[in-house]
Design goal:
With 206 residues, the protein is of the alpha/beta class. Helix content is 29%, strand content 27%. Strands 6-7-8-3-9 form a five-stranded parallel beta sheet, sandwiched between helices. β7, α6 and β8 form a beta-alpha-beta unit. α3 crosses α4 and α4 packs across α5. The longest helix has 16 residues. The termini are far apart.
C-alpha cells in the first residue's frame, strides 16, 4: 500500500461552467488531504476526478509519476470510494453486502468480520440493509472500504449521520489505513478525531 498521488493544474468544467481550476497537490503514502469549501466549490467533482470517474478539462493526475490515463483500470483498482450515497443492496444482509464487495475486489470473506467489528456492526451482520438506520448504513458503507484492497481512499462527507462513537471509529479506521501506508482524500465540513492532514480549500470559481 504505497504510492505518490500528484495533481498538476487540474481544472473541471461542467455544463459549460468552470467549477475549479489550477488545483495542484502531492500526497504520499501515509498522508491524508482534507477538502474544504462551500457548497458548489467542486469537492465532490474533484473526488470523482481523482477516482477516474470524471475527466479533467485541464491538468494531469499521476500515480508514481505515471499519468493515470495510461491505465484507467489499474488506477481504479487502487481506489476505495465512498460517495454521498451508501450504495447498499437493500435485500441483502449487511454481511452479504460486504462479502459481495470483497469478492468483487478480489478480497475474501475473511475480511468481512473484521470490517464489521471495526465499525461496531457485528450484531447486525444478518440484518437486511433495508432495515438499517441512516447512521448504521453509513457505518456499513465505511466498513465496505475495509473489505477491498484500495490504497487510495476517496471519502465524500464520511461523517454524515454518524454519532460520537461512529466518529471515533471512523478516526481509528483512517489512522489504521494511513499507518499501513494508505492515502486518503476526504471532503468534510467537520474535524475528524486524531487525524493529522493537510487542507486544500476550494473556492467557487468566478
Amino acid at each position: 500500500m504505497t504510492g505518490l498521488l500528484s495533481a498538476t493544474d487540474l481544472a473541471c468544467t461542467r455544463n459549460g461552467r468552470l467549477v475549479f481550476h489550477a488545483i495542484s497537490f502531492e500526497l504520499n503514502s501515509g498522508q491524508a488531504l482534507l477538502l474544504r469549501g462551500a457548497n458548489g466549490a467542486g469537492k465532490s467533482s474533484l473526488l470523482r476526478m481523482l477516482a477516474g470517474l470524471l475527466r479533467p478539462s485541464a491538468g494531469v493526475l499521476r500515480w508514481d509519476g505515471v499519468a493515470v490515463t495510461e491505465d484507467h483500470e489499474l488506477h481504479r483498482a487502487r481506489i476505495g470510494y465512498l460517495g454521498m450515497l451508501d450504495a447498499l443492496k437493500p435485500a441483502l444482509t449487511l454481511a452479504e453486502n460486504l462479502s459481495f464487495h470483497a469478492r468483487l475486489h478480489d478480497g475474501g470473506d475473511a475480511r468481512v468480520r473484521p470490517a464489521l467489528d471495526a465499525l461496531g456492526l457485528a450484531a447486525l451482520a444478518q440484518t437486511p440493509a433495508r432495515r438499517l438506520s441512516q447512521g448504521q448504513r453509513r457505518r456499513a458503507a465505511l466498513a465496505r472500504l475495509l473489505t477491498g484492497p484500495g490504497a487510495l481512499w476517496l471519502l465524500d462527507e464520511p461523517t454524515l449521520a454518524l454519532d460520537t462513537d461512529g466518529l471515533d471509529r471512523l478516526g481509528a479506521m483512517l489512522s489504521g489505513h494511513l499507518a499501513r501506508g494508505g492515502l486518503a482524500v476526504i471532503a468534510t465540513h467537520v474535524d475528524l478525531p486524531a487525524l493529522h492532514a493537510e487542507t486544500l480549500t476550494l473556492g467557487i470559481a468566478a
